[in-house]
Known about the structure:
The chain has 365 residues and is of the alpha/beta class. It has helices at residues 18-25, 46-55, 68-78, 91-102, 117-125, 140-149, 172-179, 195-201, 209-215, 243-250, 260-269, 273-296, 318-327, 350-364; strands spanning 33-34, 85-88, 108-111, 129-132, 154-160, 187-191, 219-224, 237-241, 300-302, 308-312, 330-331, 333-334, 342-346.
Amino acid sequence: MFNKKLENLKNYEAGKPIELVVREYGIDAKDVIKLASNENPFGTSVLVEQALKNASNKAHLYPDDSYFELKEALAAKFNVTPKNLIIGQGSDQIIEFIAHAVLNETNAILTAGVTFAMYDIYAKHAGASVIKTPSASHNLSQMLELYKANKDKIAAIFLCLPNNPLGECLDASEVYDFMREISPKTLIVIDGAYNDFAKFKDAKKAIDPSDLIRNFKNAIFLATFSKSYGLGGMRVGYGIADESIINELGKLRPPFNITTLSLKAATIALSDAEFVDKTLKNNFEQMTRYENFAKDHGIEFLPSYTNFIVFKFDTQNSSQISQELLKKGIIVRDMQGYGLNAIRITIGTATQNDKLFEKLDEILK
């Protein structure tokens, strides 16, 4: 009955919801802290909240399917044209478009050893194989070696910059040097879901989409409103690429693939730079506290250019630690599914982080 391609596929495991902790442990929802899905701890902009209230009486109407206002705002922000843009229900929907547009049973994708799971899943949906580097993080020497050995097979390369779920990030200059070695017939996907965080921390990590697509006609830059803009629940992402790529991906986009309210929220969110600056500043101020906590407790951590940090353990079991934190009303992401004895923690507000440090300290002792 079902497509044979599904036989060896696992479901993507999303972060545990607050409702699950309330049901299983009887903890009041207001006492649960979710630090598992890299959501914005400040919620979203008050400008967005007001705009959603004002637009609530339009929920019965389909959105403007051209997404004119949002594309115009994004085009101005990134110095591109609206024809260089495609809007998705989260940036992962655009990854799905890419998979259907370029992949099949005869070709493959190339990724880092540990990276965003949906690259693997969507590639296998299309029947393509997945080639990963031996290194968990992005090792461009290994990538180039694998690419040259499989040049006729690799149809797309996915670079997650910064990398989810590890947090590391390459310098833009070394990424461009790598891309110059790749055939223009191979699509290069730069997943920049967290790139504004990396840019805030270190300007050398910033990928300029306008510069990228001007120099590489085979590249697409992906981004999302879910992180620094605090619109995870609205599900809005976008891709920036040469018009030829956008035209092909557009053939796969269903009509009205984001909602009327999502469209309004994303458009207004772009206008509130103060909210984004507050988010980025808090993130790296609080991340320093996580790094100090790890050092004080002898925990290895991965330097992060995102809104999360990974703690790796030697003797303690990450699944047990995650479970004990759940019982105390704190949700983090166990990394055992990635083959790592580690937890990934979203950087929260100062108050949320105080509680995490207190409870994790109790567990570790």
